[in-house]
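Duplicate of earlier report; omega-amidase input re-posted below.
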Amino acid sequence: FRLALIQLHVSAVKSDNLQRACGLVREASAKGAKVVALPECFNSPYGTQYFKEYAEKIPGESTQKLSEVAKECSIYLVGGRSIPEEDGGKLYNTCTVFGPDGAMLAKHRKVHLFDISIPGKIQFKESETLSPGNSFSMFDTPYCKVGLGICYDIRFAEMAQIYGQKGCQLLIYPGAFNLTTGPAHWELLQRGRAVDNQVYVATVSPARDEKASYVAWGHSTVVNPWGEVIAKAGAEETVIYTDIDLKKLAEIRQQIPILSQKRCDLYGLEMKK
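Output:
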């Protein structure tokens, strides 16, 4: 099946972002995409100072638009971090998924908050405004089961391993790595998660805006279960496409059967929630 990643240029005007995102979703559908993913923070600038101002409840304006365009195009739509979600007085970094009938199939709240300090380069603390999610998020399609993470979640290998154990063959991470962590780890982490779990891994970033307070790395990417980069964007706004070949995935798992060779008598990993 064909996967499309929309690397959107995000402005400060929510309505413009929504309109342009939906237009690109329609374009991707017209080119045969069955699963379409938007980037982290696609409808607002990324930054702790913006989260409260742009926050919405779910369902709300942004998720309603995503539901409508998913139904119109009869696709599976991964809504990036569609919005900072407000719920019960707390804010969450939330990704919603909609099916071809417009129904919401999953709602992933970012589990690991991006609190880092690299002297002389970048300091960022999502926990100043956001609360963490407390659950894994998977959804079924006629093609395969898909696991979801958001940006920083990709650094935690255990999460991807759980998804692999639960039968996911594609992991999608809307993300917004920056100009420090992007060149260092963006592709490396994707290839590691793909090889370790013999799955496809897709990451979808906002386009780079040098004038923004937080500058995203861009380079939305798809990696196959052999660890090969099979599609990659530059820094500009674009849509990239790739065909997810589940036959190839099965062949790789047969050739190097790590899933059946795990020593469960010596070690294990469990999902607690």
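The chain has one domain: 2-255.

Merging into the original ticket.
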